[in-house]
Amino acid sequence: MSQTDHSTSAFPPIAFIGGGNMASAIIGGLIRQGAPASSITVVEPFEATRAAIKTSFGIDALPAATEALQSAQLVVWAVKPQSFKEAAAPVAAHTRKALHLSVAAGITTDSIAAWTGTQRIVRAMPNTPALVGKGMTGLFARPEVDAQDKALIETVIGSTGELTWVDQEAHLDAVTAISGSGPAYVFLFLEAMTQAGVDMGLSAEQSYKLAVATFAGGSELAARSSESAEVLRQRVTSKGGTTYAAITHMQEQKLPEHFIEAMRKAQIRAQELAAEFGK
Hints:
Largest sheet: 7 strands, mixed
Number of domains: 2
Catalytic activity: L-proline + NAD(+) = (S)-1-pyrroline-5-carboxylate + NADH + 2 H(+); L-proline + NADP(+) = (S)-1-pyrroline-5-carboxylate + NADPH + 2 H(+)
Distance between the termini: 31 Å
CATH class of the largest domain: Alpha Beta
Helix content: 40-55%
EC number: 1.5.1.2
Number of strands: 7
Structural class: alpha/beta
Shape: elongated
Order of helices and strands: EHEHEHEHEEHEHHHHHH
Strand order of the largest sheet: 2-1-3-4-5-6-7
CATH architecture of the largest domain: 3-Layer(aba) Sandwich
Protein name: Pyrroline-5-carboxylate reductase
Strand content: 5-15%
CATH topology of the largest domain: Rossmann fold
Mean pLDDT: 94
């Protein structure tokens, strides 16, 4: 069993270490689901960010860790990877009995365990669409995390979008490469499609609207369909047609292969960052 009991409430006391964009996305999702702002504590060293949290959520964020953290049953680490170790030192003494959830990229649970003095750790790899409730988060739990702990994590992360558990921590590097960095790939394609439209005589506004709607609609169609992406692509690629001309050119230029290799580069960089910041 967990060392804390959160069975009486879907929203036990939660502490956020760091109050930036990802923390705000999770806090906003929790409040939309009914979590009282009074159950949320935020530690944020920057005054401007504390002011933004107050404006957005009515939460008076703390400039530094205090004994107020002792009531937290879940601690969410939303700090920059390079700041994690330093931030953990003053927090650890107050939160060793809590469940810990990290959304800091590249920091392994071994490092977190060493810095916080606990084994009840879940590591998450979210992405920026969480800011609009459309996120995708990969999750890994250490063996000491039980089913009740996982249910709480799913409630918290589920407030920002979808989630999936991986059974090996190393697989979070693949999650990083696909969905963590993925929004940037989408934005790059949106840039290219918008520029193509402008080059063909459309306005930038028209082109961007067409591109964004196409990505959104295509993604929704894929999500709802029982058919694979390959089959869906083939259905709109008539031999000799316009789509065929575009797809054939992309394949001749080995775009799929280059795209896969680019994501492997992201995976490798995730591994490098873990080695760098986990020291």
